[in-house]
Amino acid sequence: MSDAPESEDEINRRANEKAKKRKEARNKMLATKTEERGLLIVHTGTGKGKSTAAFGMVMRCIGHGMRVGIVQFVKGAWETGERKVLEDYADLVTCRAMGEGFTWDTQDRARDIAAARAAWELAQAMIADPTYRLVLLDELNIVLRYGYLPVDEVVAALTAKPRDLHVIVTGRNAPPALIEAADLVTEMTLVKHPFRAGVKAQAGIEF
Fold it and tell me: Is 38 part of a structural domain of the chain?
């Protein structure tokens, strides 16, 4: 047996054979995926990026000419970069900031519950509107966590959404019933965050 190292051509030949087999296996798997329908998507976890990822999907829908509805349950008067961008696509996007800020900002539980209920009524109207292809319920998990809306009511409405509609729910601490009902769940994990080192929220990164 020769101890001579393999030639570059031999390495390339074996790598190409493996790539061909992988492609054949993937094509075979993809051939079985034939269903197309709207998804219930949940972004949760303690890590940063839940809303950011959701707005990335909003941008994709805009690129395909799809109409999008957005209800922000917490970010009230807080001016965000995504809202400014979406103003240029008013024909495709309806973005409503219904919250009054984080619960520690208002310090008024009754007012927070009223704001959450108003936002949920708007969300249900968007879900029922056949012109929307995607509805983003930003930070809905926050109001569910605080008990401002009944989890059973919300999950029942989301599971009864129109078949072709995509719905994204963001926020920490997604309730188990919502996770169970969802088609796609992503948990953002906090590994490191500059806030803990004294760095404040910054334009372009957090808002």
Answer: no
Which single residue is written with the structure tokens 């790539």? 19
For residue 193 the two structure tokens come to 């965050």
User: Which amino acid belongs to residue 112?
Assistant: D
What does the buried/exposed string (b/e) look like for 174-186 if buried means 16 or more CB atoms within 10 Å of the residue's CB? bbeebeebbeebb
Residues spanned by the domain of 76: 49-197
CATH number at residue 119: 3.40.50.300
Q: Are 170 and 145 in contact (CB under 8 A)?
A: no
The pTM assigned to this predicted structure is: 0.84
Residues 107-137 have pLDDT tens digits of 788 888 998 999 999 999 999 999 999 999 9
Nearest to 45 by CA among 166, 193, 205: 193
Q: Residues 184, 39: contact at Cβ < 8 Å?
A: yes
Burial of 189 (0-12, 13-18, 19+ CB in 10 A): exposed
Question: Nearest Cα to 86, choosing from 72, 68, 101?
Answer: 68
